[in-house]
Design goal:
Shape: elongated
CATH topology of one domain: Rossmann fold
CATH architecture of one domain: 3-Layer(aba) Sandwich
Strand order of the largest sheet: 2-3-1-4-5
Radius of gyration: 32 Å
Structural class: mainly alpha
Helix content: 55-70%
CATH class of one domain: Alpha Beta
CATH superfamily of one domain: P-loop containing nucleotide triphosphate hydrolases
């Protein structure tokens, strides 16, 4: 007897359909229809059929079924979630919004519902509601166990495990803004800036109201000097319906980097009008006012900062760093009390401690107490030296490689190439060498625009050096020799394009005053053959001691040890001497002491080298109103004076390490040592 095959039960049919839903939705639909023939209107079968139809691209049919289900099962989250997705895919925005709003009310901790709702609201032109929905999605994601596990791994330093968890999650779930942002943070922590930015950009594109992700993206863009993009995102963040003082702060920081000091000052003033008890904002305002040349107002701002927080070392140093301000006995007593309060062993306050030592060094210098002054400068430098990386031997080796590479014969073999633009004037040398004075003189000419210390050439140079460090080339010379004329044209054009954002006028020439560019005079010749290079040089003891007692906001890691800075100066002189021998006349040298002694003659020589006519305004440079961001910002707003030429003399008993490091360079100044 042949046994009859039994038809599968509704439960079996539905289970089989569920298993087929992703890989064969048409078979899942057939399974659902079998059940519906036996039990018309059976909700689980209708739900399976609707999901199958959606995956088959039949959105309108799916929406019709899901809409009917939602009317009878309005508090079933799965139905609302599916209806929201189906309606969104079918461009039925009002129905999608209604379903997703009902879903998020029922289950506010489901982040995906909020993010999809935000996209639909944005599509409907309801931008503020969409922004708030994104923020709700971010808040909901803080309860997600998978994300929490990955975040804990990041916190514990296990970046590889966190990276793996998030990569798997994103491969499985696709568009997940919080996961993308965290994945971007992992790349950033690993030093992988390109994927970091790409991931966070994707998070922000998916959820434009994700304010924390946009804030992070702005900071990444600032780190990579992508300033116009950073400004665009900062403007968007400023429009958030959930206002935050931090949004104004980050916008102001971008504006400062772009040179828009006046607008930044306005933002700081608005923040202080709302809450004047913000020492950090007072300090930031002081920085901007100093740059704008509003010295009295800058002093008031810095004083407001330290009156609210006497241990705020950077604000004290900002006062001392005005150079034209003298800190008196009351200031000294307050700073010494602040140091006692901080306790020099407290690692988390090291920045305040070394800033206070630098400030006290300046205060005692003004009081003519060289011993006390040197002791504080020495403590500040010693502490700062523990916090930075500088390998004098490695740096000297890199300089030596450049000396051996850029010979006249080598340059001749490369032939023509590079970007022919004559726009840039590079003012190079060491910090505190008179470069800001040279910049101010040139910027007073109607054909020359002063910008600031631009990082673009250093970034190009570091990128090329990394190709050697990573083993792509055997040595520096091989890497440079590999650059074709097209490569050099592209690099020169890249520099011109990347610096365009800093130019605010239509003047034909502009200044890049990054002093460290002396390391790349050969590269400048190759990629920008028509650029001018001005070497600002000052007596080695004056220059190095002035640099050693100066705390720099960033970079210049060689300045915190007398031996390091002496070696750096010697490397600089030797490389520039070698370059002078290989490319005579390419670099114009301005000796600071000669500029002080006979300003007009030196200015005429300088302008003749640049190829522009003499203009009397260059002799009255101190009348030129422009933003100046360096430590000499106030000094260049006054006529040249001779008082600072031998400021190192009272400190000579302690300068033996510097003299030893300078070696023959000291005795031969202003010339380079023979040979």
């Amino acid at each position: 007897m042949i046994q009859q095959l039994r038809a599968p039960s509704p439960q079996q049919a539905l289970a089989e359909g569920e298993a087929l839903l992703v890989i064969a939705p048409h078979k899942a639909l057939s399974a659902a229809e079998v059940v519906l023939r036996q039990a018309p209107g059976f909700p689980p079968a209708e739900f399976l059929a609707a999901r199958a139809l959606r995956r088959m691209g039949k959105g309108k049919q799916a929406v019709a079924k899901l809409d009917a289900l939602a009317r009878g099962n309005g508090r079933v989250p799965a139905v609302l979630w599916e209806l929201g997705q189906a309606a969104a895919e079918a461009n039925d925005t009002p129905r999608a919004i209604a379903a997703l709003q009902a879903l998020t009310q029922l289950q506010p901790r489901i982040a995906g519902g909020w993010f999809l709702l935000a996209r639909q609201l944005r599509k409907a032109g309801r931008a503020d509601e969409a922004w708030r929905a994104d923020l709700s999605g971010v808040h909901a994601s803080s309860c997600d166990t998978g994300l929490l596990k990955a975040a804990l791994a990041v916190q514990d330093g296990d970046l590889e495990s966190a990276d793996r968890m998030l990569a798997e999650r994103l491969a499985r779930e696709g568009d997940d803004p919080p996961a993308l942002r965290l994945h971007g943070e992992i790349a950033w922590r690993k030093g992988e800036m390109t994927p970091a930015i790409a991931r966070v950009e994707q998070a922000v594109a998916s959820a434009p109201g994700f304010d924390l992700a946009r804030d992070f993206l702005i900071r990444l863009l600032l780190q990579t000097n992508r300033l116009p993009e950073a400004l665009d995102h900062a403007e968007v963040l400023q429009a958030s319906p959930i206002p935050s003082p931090g949004h104004k702060l980050i916008l102001a920081s971008v504006l400062v980097r772009l040179g828009h000091q006046e607008r930044a000052a306005g933002l700081y003033r608005k923040l202080l009008a709302a809450d004047p008890d913000q020492p950090q904002v007072w300090q930031n305002l002081g920085h901007v006012l100093k740059t704008l040349g509003q010295q009295a107002e800058a002093v008031e701002a810095y004083r407001a900062a330290v009156s609210r927080q006497p241990t705020m070392g950077e604000a004290w140093w900002s006062l001392a760093n005005l150079k034209t301000v003298k800190l008196g006995p009351d200031d000294i007593a307050t700073m010494e009390a602040a140091l006692a309060t901080l306790g020099e062993a407290q690692d988390e306050r090291k920045e305040d401690v070394f800033h206070l030592h630098f400030s006290l060094g300046k205060a005692f210098e003004d009081a003519k107490d060289a011993a006390a002054s040197f002791a504080h400068y020495d403590k500040g430098n010693a502490l700062r030296r523990t916090m930075i990386l500088h390998d004098a031997d490695t740096f000297s080796a890199e300089v030596q490689a450049a000396k051996q590479t850029f010979t006249a014969a080598f340059i001749a073999t490369l032939g023509e190439g590079g970007c022919p633009a004559p726009d840039p004037i590079f003012v190079v040398g060491l910090p505190r060498s008179g470069s800001t004075l040279v910049e101010q003189i040139l910027s007073s000419h109607p054909m020359v625009e002063g910008t600031m210390e631009l990082p673009e050439l250093m970034m190009i140079g570091a990128r090329l050096q990394s190709r050697v460090d990573e083993g792509e080339f055997a040595d520096f010379a091989t890497m440079i020799a590999s650059l074709t004329p097209a490569d050099r044209l592209r690099l020169g054009e890249e520099y011109i394009e990347r610096t365009r954002v800093h130019r605010q006028t239509d003047r034909p020439l502009f200044i890049d005053k990054m002093p460290n560019n002396w390391q790349h005079v050969g590269l400048i010749r190759l990629i920008l053959p028509n650029a001018k290079v001005v070497d600002a040089r000052r007596h080695p003891l004056s220059c190095c001691f002035s640099g050693w007692k100066q705390h720099f906001a960033r970079g210049q890691t060689f300045t915190y040890d007398l031996t390091d800075i002496g070696r750096y100066y010697a490397d600089y002189v030797n490389l520039m001497a070698k370059w002078d021998a290989q490319a005579p006349g390419h670099v114009h040298r301005v000796i600071y002491e000669r500029m002080v002694a006979d300003t007009e003659a030196e200015v005429r020589r300088l302008l003749s080298y640049i190829g522009i006519p003499f203009d009397p305004a260059c002799l009255e440079f101190y009348k030129t109103e422009r933003a100046v961001r360096t430590a000499s910002s106030e000094q260049v707003r006054q006529p040249i004076f001779k008082d600072g030429l031998e400021a190192w003399k009272p400190y000579e008993p302690w300068l033996a390490p510097l003299k030893a490091a300078l070696g023959p360079v000291l005795e031969s100044y202003p010339d380079a040592p023979a040979g």
